[in-house]
Write a structure and sequence with these properties.
The longest helix is centred in the middle third of the chain and has 33 residues. The strands form three sheets. Strands 1, 4, 7, 8, 9, 10, 11, 12 and 13 form a nine-stranded mixed beta sheet that branches. 35% of the residues are buried. The protein contains 17 helices and 13 strands. By secondary structure, the chain is an alpha+beta fold.
């Protein structure tokens, strides 16, 4: 009789599993990059890739929808669960697939799988609030790209001045073999313009003066841009704080800070017996400095004078997309992310086994590297005072046009000079022009005999 009862129970259990596997599971999730991202009518992201792999191993079909109220899972004033946890409890979803933190309250309300990712609580804030001033803060107004562009502009202008001095008859004549604008003087003259000091002698030709004027205009606006950004950077750094962890955050009152309302992060600080963490909770509760979404927390942190407390995994993604932000190195309250299912869900153990198998096979690590960048993706926007090259693109374009115009005018001056010489010597203009070019760029070549004879005939 006992064996018959065991067989009946086993049959009922197997039938329940087969029914669960055969039907299409309703999956609830929440939009949060990079876990779940909307792509038209479909979804992609870390959780969606993980769900696909788990479904292949366990063997079920599924349909994903977004949680209606946009919440992860919290208890309201009436004691009812809201968010994804609420949908699972009320039977509106069979499974919640999202970065759901495993907590004691959630474990009592729903069934949780083995964690698929470990995370903790950290701080997201602007770099100028988390880092001390370095020894090279005078370089801060421009980023590396702009400094390289400035060096190229300097060398290009000096080279252009040297070429114009060689080409233009007003600057140098082969007969005299004297060139005021040698390579060294061209470099020195360009430095003088960059420092707004000037370094004579100045060019006499129209082409040289065009290049000089463009370089002076370029340096004038560049220096104005530099000193404006430098003063703004110093003002921000002088009023900024050095926040490296939760102790620094709790021991100051100038910077506001908060976390996601109704989140497990808030529950951690609320239920903690640590005095520092209690002070942080009391400050947030007193100031009502909570945010309603992850995007709002990131936005306030970017605006400055606000530190956003949240899950370290999510903060890493925010710091990768916004290079002016940085996550603090201190991580507390380590916990895991898991799937949530109704209590007694027949596939709960199968889901946990599938997650462990994916972890042991290295699939979870691969998905982590796929969706979390290893470096900042927004290098061109590293701080509002970094002066990216894009903001000075028009200035560099103006200088390039001025250099091109100067070289063109120098060629026209040489052409006009060659035409005059050609009419005097009864030669073609092209032959005289080629002769002039060879004399100017090959100075050791002998001066034509006609030139020497003309000099002897002069009274």
């Amino acid at each position: 009789m006992l064996s018959f009862v065991v067989l009946v129970l086993a049959f009922m259990f197997d039938t329940r599993i087969c029914h669960a596997v055969g039907t299409e599971l309703r999956i609830t999730t929440i939009k949060q990059e990079p876990f779940t991202i909307s792509k038209g009518s479909d979804f992609e992201g870390f959780c969606m890739d993980l769900l696909f792999e788990v479904a292949k191993k366990v063997g079920f079909r599924y349909k994903v929808h977004l949680v209606k109220d946009g919440l992860y899972g919290k208890v309201d004033e009436s004691g009812r669960w809201k968010g994804m946890i609420g949908e699972v409890i009320q039977g509106e979803a069979d499974l919640a697939v999202a970065p759901l933190t495993v907590t004691a309250a959630r474990e009592k309300a729903v069934g949780m799988t083995k964690p698929f990712m470990q995370t903790g609580i950290s701080i997201l804030l602007r770099r100028d609030s988390s880092e001390n001033q370095g020894s090279f803060t005078f370089l801060a107004p421009f980023n590396t790209q702009t400094w390289v562009g400035l060096l190229v502009a300097y060398l290009g202008t000096a080279a252009c001045m040297f070429l114009i001095a060689r080409l233009s008859p007003c600057e140098w004549a082969p007969e005299s073999d004297q060139n005021r604008f040698s390579v060294v003087h061209s470099l020195w003259y360009t430095v003088g313009g960059l420092t707004l000091q000037g370094a004579g002698p100045h060019p006499k030709s129209l082409s040289g003066r065009v290049v000089s004027s463009c370089w002076w205009i370029f340096t004038l606006f560049l220096l104005a841009h530099y000193f404006t950004n430098l003063s703004s950077s110093n003002a921000a750094q002088s009023s900024s704080l050095t926040v490296k962890g939760f102790d620094d955050l709790a021991n100051q009152e100038k910077m506001e800070y908060g976390c996601l309302a109704g989140s497990s992060t808030l529950a951690f600080f609320k239920n903690s017996n640590n005095m520092v963490y209690r002070r942080i909770y009391e400050h947030m509760e007193r100031r009502k400095s909570f945010v309603s979404s992850m995007d709002e927390g990131v936005r306030r942190a970017k605006e400055g004078n606000y530190a956003f407390i949240g899950e370290s995994v999510s903060l890493d993604m925010a710091a990768a997309h916004h290079c002016e932000l940085v996550r603090s190195h201190e991580v507390i309250g380590m916990r895991g992310y898991s799937f949530a299912a109704p209590i007694g869900f027949p596939l709960l153990k199968n889901l946990s086994v599938a997650i462990l198998e994916l972890s042991e096979a290295g699939e979870l690590a691969y998905l982590r590297s796929k969706w979390w960048p290893s470096h900042c993706l927004d290098q061109d926007q590293t701080g509002t005072t970094q002066g990216p090259l894009q903001g000075l693109r028009g200035l560099f374009l103006l200088l390039s046009l001025g250099l091109g115009l100067g070289l063109l005018l120098a060629l026209l001056e040489l052409t006009a000079h060659s035409r005059t010489r050609a009419s005097e010597q009864k030669k073609s203009c092209c032959s005289v022009l080629v002769e002039q070019l060879s004399l100017r760029f090959m100075p050791h070549k002998a001066i034509p005999q006609e030139t020497s004879d003309n000099k002897k005939d002069q009274p």
